[in-house]
Design brief:
The chain is mainly alpha-helical. The chain contains 13 helices and no strands. Helix 1 crosses helix 8, helix 5 packs across helix 6 and helix 5 packs parallel to helix 13.
Length: 308
């Protein structure tokens, strides 16, 4: 069975479960957002704004080129676009701290990308997907209505995000107690749904594994490289450069997987890419953080621009 023909369909109850899981993921992300995360932007606006632009728009543009060159099937290319359109995950903040990077910048970038994901995630998915010569016919064949997808996805992401940020602002103690259980529940739910979906197609998926991983690994490596190059060209000091590098390479693959499963349940290849990315970027990010953890960030005085 060709990878693009692998179907991960669910019944009505499973679809409701996936939507609840998406709610838990975004609610848990929002619980970790604080007003100070956004205030940090004012301290170094150049770094935060450039980093956010590269993460939100630059990564999707790069992924369009990478998917066009490396993805062997349309559904895999689409999965790469969905992952790139997702905000950074809280795990990137932990890795940045481990790597001796600029944690405040990492947290600010995660906060910005998460808050804007209500609009930017569905927009980037459709904008770049509709311009890809192989993905566009696939979306047309699925009967995807752009306005409906934008509104539905914005609603699915926006409601739990707003609720979580409200709880974090008004009841920070409650938010702190709920954050870890929400994260664990979301992780467990993803494992259960993915295991159930893949169980019936295991023989075919094992056959296509060697085709799946090389583009995922190359895409993730280029995402890390893009963060490093962008920060270097912008003359970021070493610690903020490490933060941006990790922020671009560690996206919220779990969110991307649930978006695919809820909005495009028949695209098995896209779901597998999101799942593989979620696993691989944790491995690669951890190795990079461990490498940098053994090296003190360089303390070099830079011309005006990088130090702003």
């Amino acid at each position: 069975m060709p990878l693009d023909e692998v179907r991960l369909s669910f019944d009505a109850n499973a679809q409701l479960g996936l939507q609840a899981l998406l709610f838990v993921i975004m609610f848990g992300v929002a619980l970790a957002l604080k007003v100070d995360d956004f205030r940090n932007v004012a301290r170094h606006p150049w770094r935060a704004l450039l980093g956010a632009a590269v993460q939100i728009f630059g990564l999707s543009a790069l992924t369009f080129l990478v998917a066009s060159a490396l993805a062997p099937t349309p559904s895999m290319a689409f999965g790469m676009l969905v992952v790139a359109a997702c905000p950074g995950g809280n795990f990137s903040n932990f890795l940045t701290q481990w790597a001796r990077g600029d944690v405040a910048l990492s947290v600010s970038l995660t906060a910005i990308s998460s808050a804007l994901a209500v609009v930017t995630t569905p927009f980037n998915v459709l904008f770049w997907g509709s311009r890809h010569p192989e993905i566009a016919p696939l979306l047309h064949a699925l009967g995807i209505d752009a306005r409906s997808f934008l509104l539905q996805t914005a609603l699915m992401l926006g409601l739990p995000l707003a609720l979580g940020m409200t709880v974090a602002a008004r009841w920070p103690g409650l938010a702190a107690r709920l954050h870890r259980p929400c994260h664990r529940l979301a992780l467990a739910g993803l494992v259960v749904f993915l295991a159930a979906a893949l169980g019936g197609n295991w023989r075919e998926l094992r056959t296509w594994g060697p085709l799946l991983m090389p583009p995922v690994i190359a895409h993730n490596a280029l995402a890390f490289a893009a963060g490093w190059v962008a920060a270097t060209l912008a003359r970021f000091p070493d610690a903020p450069r490490r933060a941006l590098t990790i922020e671009l390479g560690v996206q919220n693959g779990g969110l991307g997987l649930v978006i695919v499963l809820t909005q495009f349940p028949t695209l098995g290849g896209a779901a597998l890419v999101a799942a593989a990315w979620g696993f691989w970027n944790v491995m690669a990010g951890s190795l990079l953080a461990a490498f940098w953890a053994r090296r003190e960030p360089a303390r070099v005085q830079l011309p005006p621009g990088g130090g702003q």
